[in-house]
Amino acid sequence: MITYVSVGLLALLSLSIPVGIVLFLLGFGVDTFFSAFPLTRGLGNMVWSTSNNATLIAIPFFVLLGEILVRSGVAGRTYAALDKWISWLPGGLVHANVATATMFSATSGSSVATAATVATVAMPQAEKLGYDPKLFSGAIAAGGTLGIMIPPSINLIVYGFLTQTSIPQLFLAGLVPGIGLALAFIVMTAIICMIRPELGGEQRLFALPVMLRALAHLVPIILLFTVIIGTIYKGWATPTEAAAVGVAGALVIAAVFGGVSVGMLTESLLGTIKITSMIMLVVLGASFLNFTLASAGLGQELRAFLEGLGLTPLMTIFVIVGIYIVLGFFIETLSLMVVTIPIIVPLVVQLGYDPIWFGILMIVLIEMALITPPVGLNLYVVQGARKSGKMGDVMLGALPYVFAMFLMAMALIAFPQIALYLPGAVQP
What we know:
The protein is mainly α. It has one domain (about 10-425). The protein has 21 helices and no strands. Helix 8 (about 135-145) packs across helix 19 (about 375-385). The protein is globular, with a radius of gyration of 21 Å. Part of the tripartite ATP-independent periplasmic (TRAP) transport system. Keywords: Cell inner membrane, Cell membrane, Membrane, Transmembrane, Transmembrane helix, Transport.
């Protein structure tokens, strides 16, 4: 059955069939060939029970928040402001790519949206100032992955929904690793540019008054993040309610900077509908596939396989990490999460590991999948924004950051408190 699902998934995705449809088709196949019962009779109830959950309402709100910030021009002003603050480092403007991605990750919740935002704003600057296209575009692709780690994260919401884990606790757990990854990307960039200065472009130092004036474009985003996360942990709002507050705050910021118009609102709403529909189709398709797989006994089959290896719990975690790295080469990231979570997470919990810790480890591995070929979505997003050059340039530029993510995954395994300290210290 595992072979059928793996081969079928790769074959259908290679035909460019939408991921959500692929998951439904695989579910029908499992029902037809591996189940003794007509599982499709439960399809209607399964789809309704999955979609009828208040937690999922947070997804369109966070998507809309990011759309408003992008389409109102806030992204461009934020990028220009960060350029004035950190372009003195070796690597110059490349650091602004990572820093801008970090700030927008703290509001948008989507890696693809974050990568698209920064790429659209930054790529013209790379051509104008003569930066190495590989490193510059690779940093954007890597920085965009922070959108699913730094709260609020749509992927963490989906993980919490599927595992019945506290979403506020997951948000707290993702904060330190997310900031740690951002700093690791900056350090990696600085090291590369100290070894090869010609890759980083010109280091620029701005006068203090100019830097202070630039803060006017950074403070609103910081305040918005503080309001969203603060209302959750003060107990004043659920994640869904905080997302709605965030949308209102984004509209206020856009209005202050003169970015609100009928056209902007229309584009933001249409973009939200498209992205949310895609996410929900994937979630529903994966829920049906997981239902058929569980009913057909895949969970027991996989558990027996791992137990048959005779490994210690730690070695089993390394095997699971290896599985995610390999699958990440071929499977779209959200699909990879929702397909594997109901099977893998119970095994991990049975081994004695914390589901919140494993959720953060999984997100790091999913981030790696976003910038590894051939299905790394962020690579295609950045290449699309470049509008010239070879796809291979973006892939090569992202490789150092893949290594940084792998080191973070190993650090999380060696020191679980990197993810678990804040959830233990702060009780929302």
